[in-house]
Amino acid sequence: MANSPGAKKRVRQLARRTMINKSRRSRMRTFIRRVEEAIASGDSDKARDALKNAQPEIMRSVTKGILHKNTASRKISRLSARVKAINA
Question: Per its UniProt record, what HAMAP family does this chain match (predicted)?
Answer without folding.
Answer: Ribosomal_bS20
